[in-house]
Each structure stands twice: as C-alpha cells, then as structure tokens.
Write a structure and sequence with these properties.
Length: 400
C-alpha cells in the first residue's frame, strides 16, 4: 500500500516542476460554512488542476525506452492536460483519448500542449477501453488517471504542502472521482497527523466510490457539471487506501455544486470547475458536520467551459433572487408599459427583458400580459418590488 515515503519522494521530484499553490483562509466562506476554512488553490497550476502532480511523478520515472515509445492516457480533461504538458516538457510523445462529452476548452488546451487527441465514447469507461486497446496495438505506456501508485503519490504531495502551510488543520475535504487524489492525501495526512479527519465528496450522479466503500447501491449515470469526478468504476488500489484511511464519504447534488461555483467566483474571485467546487458544496450542505472545525478544502481545478459557466452564473442569480421573472396584467393602452417600468425604476430594480403577450392569454380582449425579467438586489428587494406594484393596483405574479 502507498506510504508516506513514496509521497515524500514524489515531492522531491516535483520540486521546481509545478507551482506550490497557496493555501489561504477565506473569512467570508468561513462565516458561511461555520468553519475556519482554508482553500488549497490547485486551480492556479499552469494547467489549472492538481493532476499535474501525479502526471509528472509518473512520467519522470519512465525508462529511456518507455519515453521513446511514448505514452497514452485517458481523461475527461485535467489528467489529459497534465500528461500532455509534462510529456511535451520531457520530450515524450503523448496520445490522449477523451470522452466525446469533454468540454471544448479542455480538448483545445490538451491539443495546444502538442498531444494527439482522440475523442471516443460517451463515458470514461468507453474512452479508457479504447485507450488501452491503442496502448497494446501501438506499444505505448498507459498512464492511468488514478489507479497507479506513482499517480497517487504525486497527488499526495498536495497534503504535504497544506499541512506545512497550516499545521493546525483538523479536517481535509477532498473531491473524489477514481480516488487517486484522496488516496494520496489521506496517506500523507494520516501519517503526519493521525487524528486528522479526511472527508471525500462525490456527486449523487456518480457515487461509485461511495458504493464500493460503503456497500451501497446508489444508481449512477447521466450528465453532471462535475465531469472531472464522473467516474463509473473507482480504482482498486485507490479503494483499498480509502477504506483504510478516509474517515467519511459524502454526496452532493448538482445544485449544491452550482451554488459553490458561484460563491467561489463571487466571494473569492476564483474560478472552479464542477469537480473543483465539490468540496465547498459538501461544506455548505453538511454544515453541522463541520461546524467549528479548522478545514482545508481542496479546490482541485478550474477548467470549465465558458458557456456552461455563463449558465451557472445566470442560474445562481435566479437562485439568490437577483434575477427574477414577473408577469404583470394590464390594460393594453398607450402608457401602460411606461407606468409599470416607472414603478419598477422607483423600486430600484432594472429591466433586463420585456415581452408582451396578447394572443396566448386568458385575459379579456384589450388586456395584455407583460412578462419582465428584472435585476434586483435579493429576495427582500423582490418582495418590496411586488408590494409596490400591487399597491399601485396592478395584478402581478412572480414566475419561477
């Protein structure tokens, strides 16, 4: 089983090859979660993910013959970029197989590092099978994204840095896909500080590690915004370590992750992908479990498709009451809209969209439904706005 010496050896190899990312306190998120919360900012790595650690540790140990033959990896994006980037730096030919659902930004960046990218399959398992077949056919070295001691040891260096920066941490919260990251972290953390609590986080849509460790049978599959941890089958080597060294595994849903992405962007001005925000999602959902603790949270990556991010931000504004949709019923006469918008302005809201509905309504003729999307300051402000419109004699309802 992976041990502390393996991780310390990996840390020596990584010295000067990757960024020692900051582990910084977030006072506002600490207040929101009821903890003293420190963020390990792995989204600041050159490829915007912790995956560089394991990738470099694996590649640098290859023999001259293996380097000449080249490597192949399977990944939804972050492992792909880590392998491609460091393979290019080390002069190793790299082929990356990515599932067809991989965000375009990750595909483009992986190609940008000089790797040959092959899109194949609609799941990580299908992509992995194809990559292994190509490895055998072309005599390439397969670099597994998690189920490899060298990969796990590289990821574990993250824990050494966290505890060096904040030695009084009593809890670590880590996103879990195949398990390589948390296996490495738990190995280092428990060796250095046995009483430290290590908590893993998966999504309800992909709870494979929870099922493997806890013996549950949660269904899995479908799409998730946390595609980086959308793993159908956890690594056997990782699972063995997690059973022995991880204290708890928690599940979060898509809405939790969306909220966490928006909070990190708005409060900390830092960008997290779905998997990268999973730890904060768990801290927000399970507040009572972490109350009063000194928590180190792994913000594991920041590679997210811009279009998806725009949707998440919009949905976050709706969730917080800062973007609302209302329908006002009024007489269809000149000046009606001007009167309504004046009342909206007086209430301090801003009009984003307006749409008149005359045909598809049950109102009497010569009446109109005016649908408006408004920018507001939050739920209390929304109620003030609705009260003002109703006090003016207008029939108005909020549409969710």
């Amino acid at each position: 089983m992976l041990e502390l010496n393996d991780i310390r050896a990996a840390a020596e190899r990584l010295q000067g090859q990757i960024l020692t990312t900051p582990c910084v306190e977030s006072r506002t998120l600490s207040q929101l979660t009821g903890t003293q919360l420190f963020l390990k900012m792995e989204n600041l790595q050159f490829t915007a993910s912790f995956k560089e650690r394991g990738a470099f540790n694996k590649l640098v140990q290859l023999s001259a013959d293996e380097r000449r033959r080249g490597v192949i990896a399977m990944s939804a994006g972050n492992h792909a970029q880590g392998v491609a980037y460091h393979a290019e730096r080390l002069g190793i030919p790299a082929t990356i197989v990515m599932p067809s659902f991989t965000p375009g930004v990750k595909v483009a960046r992986t190609r940008g590092f000089g790797a040959r990218v092959i899109l194949h399959g609609d799941s990580l398992e299908a992509a992995s099978s194809h990559a292994r077949a190509l490895a055998e056919r072309d005599n390439l070295v397969f670099v597994h994204p998690y189920n490899d001691p060298a990969i796990m040891a590289g990821q574990g260096t993250l824990a050494l840095e966290m505890l060096a920066a904040q030695p009084n941490l009593d809890t670590l919260v880590v996103p879990v896909g195949g398990g390589g990251l948390i296996a490495g972290i738990a190995t280092a953390a428990k060796a250095l500080k046995p009483e430290l609590r290590v908590v893993g986080v998966q999504t309800w849509r992909f709870p494979a590690m929870v099922n493997a460790v806890q013996g549950t049978h949660h269904p899995q599959g479908g799409s998730t915004i946390a595609e980086g941890i959308a793993v159908g089958a956890p690594g056997p080597l990782c699972t063995e370590v997690i059973r022995a060294r991880v204290d708890e595994l928690l599940l979060v849903d898509e809405g939790d992750i969306e909220q966490a992405i928006v909070l990190l962007l708005e409060i900390e001005k830092t960008l997290a992908e779905g998997a990268g925000a999973a730890a904060l999602a768990a801290l927000m959902r399970y507040k009572e479990s972490f109350a009063g603790r000194k928590v180190g949270m792994v913000l594991s990556g920041g590679n997210i498709d811009p279009q998806l991010l725009a949707q998440i931000i919009g949905r976050g504004l709706v969730r917080s009451g800062r973007l609302i949709r209302i329908v006002v019923s009024a007489r269809d006469v000149p000046g009606s809209l001007a009167r309504i918008t004046a009342l909206v302005a007086e209430a301090g809201a801003n009009v984003d969209e307006v749409h008149h509905q005359r045909a598809f309504t049950l109102l009497a003729a010569q009446n109109v439904e005016i649908e408006m999307v408004l920018q507001t300051r939050g739920h209390e402000h929304v109620q003030e706005l609705l009260d003002r419109l109703r006090a003016a004699g207008l029939e108005v309802r909020q549409v969710t």
